[in-house]
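STRUCTURE:
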């Protein structure tokens, strides 16, 4: 490799070749690319994996992390995603604790630092892959390909396909998995630091490498594939196996007693046994922890895997591989989600997209032939290791061993891209060696680095908030129903219901079975009082997915508004059957019973809501108000005090309890609660109006007059307040006349 590495000397100055400066340059480049995402929001999957994940909160026992998936669900649940990444979740929890809450900047800072660390580690990894593993007499590793290692690490640091992993906080799983993957590989290399002519090794470092591989898997599933890469490295670099020579001997049926050098001792066999047993043991333990087998995905997640024809499945899987290769080669069309019709199925060999498959395999077969048949041992080693680094970490996402829950996912290319960068660097070095136009090659390399850096900066900006992220996907995947759904959801959250309806309708048009889009569209139509269409959409949603609890609850709300009380009660009950711990549904069921004057049933439903969710303010308030209206003042007071103990700063509860205390002639305590509620929300007219009524009853007429006037200033249309104010004024006038 020395002469190929030297061919890059006109591109990479010798001043940056010392390891410290090389690593500094790589780390700085990675920071420049993704620093723009530092102050971004939590976006897309961050909401479920971080903001709504109870495993990040202090009240959740740390032990629960080892029994829950990445999203906080129990692994034993049939609905679990089975993504077991407890160490990644632990870092999220530490982030939450150290930053004092869900402050996105601290989470993003850790991701940017991790990417920088991975990029810096790759300088050492590429040095080994390109230059081989040689040590000085003092045990220091020789850097035999510093230019190639630096260029490959730079290409990795600025690759735009990494933006999802770095700018999206949930991408930390890939970053941590890659970090321990590389540490495992470098640890395996250290096993041969004191290698002598007999090829001895350190068993300690081999075992430590296996342990680091297990740690990598606890961060992201593909981390375990490092054991396969270590095995390939051992066979090719340490054992110096010539695959072509072995194949030729087999074909010639050469039974000569001379064995390949690597087989002359039992060292390699022992290490392969350790790697195999370690990998099998780790996978067995993980399978036992998963409990109920692999996760269940739907057709919209990975349509090719549900195709009846094996040929159709094979063609589409290979097309997905070609798309992944294209993202590595030309990372300009990037999307946060590639599912739901974004990539239509190839259903026959007559589809023009089959050309992409042919191009992919033409390139791969060409590289494999060079890796096996080249007379240059360095070239064989570099191409084989580059292909190994490209392919081995990608295998868990390939659909070859089990069905995965996506079509294309940029995040799974984080580690494989290192293999691509290695192959690209080698190609550029070879090209530079065989051409006299050195400046043209230098311009090409600098252009790639500059354009990729620019794309990273732009893409990082798109990941700063959901509005930019979702809209950026419309031009890349216009057929993706989930893209339209997310744009609509973002607009609805901002209050732009008209625009949201348009995007939700398009999502349903693109995917007529998209129940979540139907549910959200039905909700908006319900709020706009378009109840008939809302009922049709929600009924269709529960027909398509009978266990969709949220849609059943929303259907019940619509039916309640249409005065179809029996159907509404049945819908609420069905929702609770499918989701037993559903406080909001119990709350709405209580409202239905209150409308039907079934007061005991209403109180029981609201009590269930508060048991499941003690901070459910609306349920507490409705209990207090119903008990107050039915004359059960003592019980209303008890419920109000219980609620305020659980939610001491809820001004609406203070207001409701203050009303009850006022009717019970506990004026002083009632006044204190009214004043606390007003301090929290000074511009709420009813708070001032009811405090004025309290003062009116209490005989503090001047204070009553003051708060009546404030209330009417805030809400001049309040007829009850105006009537009470009129009574007070007449009373004050009468008192004034008596005094005269």
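SEQUENCE:
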């Amino acid at each position: 490799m020395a002469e190929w590495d030297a061919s890059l000397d006109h591109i990479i100055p010798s001043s940056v070749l010392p390891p410290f400066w090389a690593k500094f340059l790589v780390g700085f480049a990675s920071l420049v690319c993704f620093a723009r995402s530092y102050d971004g929001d939590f976006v897309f999957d961050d909401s479920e994996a971080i903001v709504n994940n109870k495993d990040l909160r202090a009240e959740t026992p740390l032990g629960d992390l080892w029994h829950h998936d990445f999203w906080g669900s129990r692994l034993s649940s049939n609905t679990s995603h089975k993504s077991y990444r407890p160490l990644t979740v632990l870092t999220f929890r530490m982030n939450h604790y150290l930053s004092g809450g869900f402050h996105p900047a601290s989470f993003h800072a850790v991701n940017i630092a991790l990417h920088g660390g991975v990029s810096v580690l790759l300088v050492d990894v590429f040095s080994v892959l390109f230059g081989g593993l040689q040590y000085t007499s003092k045990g220091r590793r020789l850097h035999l390909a510093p230019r190639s290692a630096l260029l490959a690490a730079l290409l990795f640091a600025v690759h735009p396909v990494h933006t999802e992993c770095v700018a999206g906080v949930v991408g930390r799983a890939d970053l941590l998995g890659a970090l321990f993957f590389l540490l495992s590989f470098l640890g395996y290399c250290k096993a041969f630091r004191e290698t002598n002519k007999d090829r001895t090794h350190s068993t300690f470092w081999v075992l430590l490498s296996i342990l680091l591989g297990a740690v990598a898997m606890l961060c992201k599933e593909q981390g375990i594939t490092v054991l396969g890469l270590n095995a390939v490295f051992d066979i090719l670099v340490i054992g110096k196996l010539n695959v072509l020579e072995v194949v030729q001997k087999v074909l010639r049926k050469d039974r000569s007693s001379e064995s390949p050098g690597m087989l002359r001792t039992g060292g390699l066999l022992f290490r392969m046994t350790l790697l195999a047993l370690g990998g099998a043991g780790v996978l067995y333990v993980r399978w036992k922890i998963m409990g109920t087998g692999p996760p269940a995905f739907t057709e919209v997640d990975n349509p090719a895997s549900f195709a009846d024809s094996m040929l159709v499945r094979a063609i589409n899987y290979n097309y997905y591989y070609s798309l992944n290769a294209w993202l590595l080669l030309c990372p300009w069309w990037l999307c946060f989600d590639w599912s739901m019709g974004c990539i239509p199925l190839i259903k026959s060999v007559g589809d023009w997209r089959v050309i992409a498959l042919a191009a992919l395999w033409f390139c791969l077969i060409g590289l494999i032939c060079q890796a096996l048949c080249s007379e240059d041992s360095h070239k064989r080693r570099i191409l084989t290791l580059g292909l190994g680094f490209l392919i081995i970490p990608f295998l868990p996402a390939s659909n070859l061993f089990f069905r995965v829950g996506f079509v294309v996912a940029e995040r799974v290319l984080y580690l494989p891209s290192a293999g691509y960068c290695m192959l690209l660097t080698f190609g550029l070095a070879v090209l530079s060696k065989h051409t006299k136009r050195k400046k043209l090659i230098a311009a090409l390399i600098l252009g790639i680095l500059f354009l990729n850096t620019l794309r990273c900066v732009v893409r990082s900006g798109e990941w700063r908030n959901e509005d930019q992220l979702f809209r950026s996907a419309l031009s890349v995947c216009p057929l993706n129903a989930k893209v339209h759904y997310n744009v609509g959801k973002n607009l609805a959250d901002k209050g732009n219901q008209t625009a949201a309806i348009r995007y939700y309708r398009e999502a349903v048009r693109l995917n007529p079975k998209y129940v979540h889009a139907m549910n959200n569209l039905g909700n908006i139509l319900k709020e706009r009082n378009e109840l008939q269409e809302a009922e049709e959409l929600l009924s269709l949603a529960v027909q398509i997915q009978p266990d969709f609890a949220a849609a059943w609850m929303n259907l019940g709300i619509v039916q309640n508004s249409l005065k179809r009380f029996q159907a509404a009660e049945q819908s609420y009950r069905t929702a609770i059957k499918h989701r037993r711990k559903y406080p909001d549904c119990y709350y709405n069921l209580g409202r239905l019973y209150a409308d039907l004057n079934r007061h005991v049933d209403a109180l029981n439903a609201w009590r269930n809501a508060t048991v499941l969710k003690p901070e459910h303010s609306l349920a507490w308030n409705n209990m207090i108000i119903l008990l107050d209206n039915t004359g059960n003042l003592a019980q209303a007071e008890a419920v109000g005090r219980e609620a305020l103990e659980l939610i001491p700063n809820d001004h609406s509860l203070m207001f409701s309890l203050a009303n009850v205390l006022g009717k019970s002639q506990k004026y002083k305590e009632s006044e204190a609660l009214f004043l606390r509620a007003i301090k929290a929300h000074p511009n709420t007219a009813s708070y001032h109006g009811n405090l004025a009524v309290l003062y009116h009853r209490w005989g503090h007429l001047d204070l009553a007059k003051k708060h009546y006037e404030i209330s009417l200033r805030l809400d001049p249309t309040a007829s009850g307040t105006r009537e009470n104010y009129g009574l007070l004024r007449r009373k004050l006038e009468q008192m004034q006349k008596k005094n005269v």
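REMARK: The chain has a mean pLDDT of 88.
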